[in-house]
Amino acid sequence: MQTQETYNDDIVRLFLYASIIWALIGMLMGVIVAAELYWPNLNADIPALTFGRLRPNHTFGIILAFGVSALMGTSFYIAQRTGHVRLAYGGLAKFVFWGWQLCCVLAMTTMPFGLTQSKEYAEPEWFIDILIAVVWISYAIVFFGTLARRRISNIYVACWYYGAFIIAVALMHIINNLAVPISWTRSIPLYSGVVDAMAQWWYGHNAVAFILTAGFLGMMYYFVPRQAQQPLWSYRFSIVNFWALISVYMWAGAHHLMYTALPDWVQSVGMAFSIILVMPSWGSAANGLMTFSGAWQRVKEDPAAQFMVMSLIFYGASTMEGSIMADKTVNSLSHYTDWTVAHVHSGSLGWVAMITIGSLYAMAPRILGRTEMHSKKAMFWHFWLHLIGTLLYVIAMWTAGITAGLMWRETGADGTLLYSFLDSLVTIKPLYVVRALGGTLVLTGMAIMAWNMWKTSADARQGKVAPIPVPVDDHGHGSTQTANAY
Amino acid sequence: MNFKYFEAIEKKTWLLGVLTAVFVSFGGLAEITPLFVAANKIEAADVKPYDPLRLAGFQTYVHSGCYLCHSQMIRNLGFETQRYGAVSLAQESFYDRPMQWGSKRTGPDLARVGGKYSNAWHLEHLRDPRAVVPESNMPKYNWLEDLSIDAELIQSRMRAMRLLGAPYSDEEIASAPSKLEGKTQMDAMIAYLQGLGIDNRPQNAGEHDKGHKL
């Protein structure tokens, strides 16, 4: 080699910073909308700050701004490390970063002003959707381009999951957002009524499947062995789970539409696949947890590993809960209530946020030219604040959801309903305060992480971190265990 | 020996990508395609598309994010029909682009709210929900009174809906601005709410139980 090839960590650092900033913004939005449900005048008569206008900013801010920024950053990091190769198309990668940030800023500055399609989790209007599609295809080119030029012969399983995430999101985003523009900022969707319901929940559920599950499993399959400092428990098991997960998930969306005007056969198919889904889900959770076996002593001293272990426990718990809630009988109680909100947040705060936080803590020092994070104590504080906040949130919403669900169906001896809708709202309203408190703890933990990251990145921000050389000597001789080998 | 074939996937980026795309496609193809075909068979004559004022109200409903707290889908369950009225039918949301079935009830279902309350009640409630229902946690929508309706946008919306199958006549589209003259988004919202469960009800659906007041 004439010149030494180095990893492109500049781009990974940008994504790291962006994801922390978006986490703060997205979580802040969450705390505000949570508080508004108890203090409805909190919007101070400003339309853009009403619950209906701001909630999409919370979900978009967390899933697509924070979550996807973290996924893009870690995927670039992992594709380089497991392939022993520099990231492909550096210029295009920069476009992916700035393009994605532009999408997020545009979405979050237009939605509060009513420029929304009001398709749940796909609110941004058509002009943003097109930009998202362009950035996404560029992202796919950079990622798969990097895989194509890798020096290790086998593609590590983490990259499989990232690849599925990239392909499926491209499909879902384009199909769900097909629309007829009626002005520069407005459009009407191609689908209506029942078809739209199925398309939206096929999309909505698979956003959970391929962003919040497959994407973050990619993160898990790389950083868990890394942090446990031992190989993945079973590589073959991870591959079996991969094919099962990506093919079963896509059928499950109909469980969001039980007992509705959706034809019965689709509801039943959705329910059946949702129940089967617990197997690949638990397969991945078990694989991750077993990877720590024999390394528990290390976990005790490492907050990043603690985040990972806890995330896998939440992943197992909330996927089991999801399969149970997809059962029609249970769903008749849980649907439309805060139980759904509890389930989503045990998944997002418990699984997604924790695996991301753990992985970022593991990755950050390596790309910021440090051996470890600035403050370990702050990491411990973050862990406990996040865990307690999540538990408060989830327990409050479980209680609220089940209470309301039971009150809605309660009838007296003569068969008439016992409670008005308002009765149920009055009963569960105090729990909305507990939820807002839980969210505040989570946000506080994230603020501590931001401070810790700021300190840790001091050298990197001044450009004092030397690029890391790609190990080129062993090319062609890699194994499937590459990720754990260095 | 089977592992041999597997190695091929693991070592070829394009094969991995293609197989992934194939595997993720089955579910959507199997579930959405038949619905799309079936939906085209729904007789459009059963339900009438929104008149301009109610269409403007639908637009305001959509842009305000009302679906995040109110569903419009009464499920096929006894306690649901008792509270809200007859089960929601597929035709009722046939002209809703996008559908507003919702997924969460922080407030009650609205699929059959039409006619349950007076226009005056709705006006007062939208201006300040707590003036009518002290325990309510719904935000005020008094600002809807200050917003006029963009008649041209409503016409564009009607034209686009016609493109996708809604039977609007040239005359109906041309006369839309006159129907919206002097109306605010508050008027439109109330007209929309008062039509829910009545004007979008299929003509052959027969009398339906309207359920209780909420």
Structural class of chain B: mainly alpha
Q: Bin the strand percentage of chain B.
A: under 5%
Characterize the overall form of chain B: globular
Describe the sheet with the most strands of chain B: none
Mean pLDDT of chain A: 94
Strand content of chain A: under 5%
The topology string of helices and strands of chain B comes to: HHHHHHHHHH
**Helix content estimate of chain B:** 40-55%
Number of strands of chain B: 0
Over all CA atoms, what is the radius of gyration of chain B?
22 Å
Number of helices of chain B: 10
Shape descriptor of chain A: globular
Biggest sheet architecture of chain A: 2 strands, antiparallel
Helix-strand sequence of chain A = HHHHHEEHHHHHHHHHHHH
Quote the distance from N terminus to C terminus of chain B: 65 Å
Number of helices of chain A: 17
Tell me the quaternary state: heterodimer
How would you write the strand order of the largest sheet of chain A?
1-2
Mean pLDDT of chain B: 89
What is the number of beta strands of chain A? 2
- Uncertain parts of chain B: none
Summarize the structure.
The complex is a heterodimer of chains A (486) and B (214). Chain A has 486 residues and is mainly α.
Structure description:
The complex is a heterodimer of chains A (486) and B (214). With 486 residues, chain A is mostly helical. Helices cover 71% and strands 1% of the residues of chain A. Chain A is built from 17 helices and two strands. A two-stranded antiparallel ribbon of chain A has the order 1-2. In chain A, strand 1 and strand 2 form a beta hairpin. Chain A is globular and about 85 Å long. Mean pLDDT of chain A is 94; it is low at 475-486. The longest helix of chain B has 27 residues, at 13-39. Chain B has helices at 2-11, 13-39, 52-64, 78-84, 119-127, 129-132, 151-163, 170-174, 176-180, 185-195. Chain B has ten helices and no strands. Chain B is globular. Chain B is mainly α and 214 residues long. At the A-B interface, helix 2, helix 4, helix 5, helix 6 and helix 7 of A face helix 1, helix 2, helix 3, helix 4 and helix 7 of B.
